[in-house]
Amino acid sequence: MSNPNPPSAAAPDQATTARARNVALLVAVTFFMENLDATVITTALPKMAETFGVGAVDLNIGITVYIIAVAIFIPLSGWMADRFGARRIFATAIAVFTLASLLCGLCTELDTFVVARVLQGIGGALMVPVGRLSVLRTTEKKDLVKMIALITWPGLVAPILGPPLGGLMVTYATWPWIFFVNIPLGLIAIAGALVMIPAGRDEGVRPFDSLGFLWLAGACATIMLGLEWLGEAQSQRLTLAVLMLVAGVVLALLAIRHCRRHPAPLLALDALKFATFRSSIYGGSLFRIAISALPFLLPLMFQVGFGLPPVTAGLLVLAVFAGNLLMKPFTTATMRRWGFRTVLLVNGVIGVLSILACALLSADTPWPVIALVLFVGGLSRSLQFTCYNSVGFADVPKAEMSAASTLFSMFFQLAMGMGVAVGALLLRLSMAVQGHSDHALTSDFRVAFVGVALIGLLALIDIYALERKAGEHVLER
Question: How far apart are CA 4 and CA 24, in angstroms?
Answer without folding.
Answer: 36
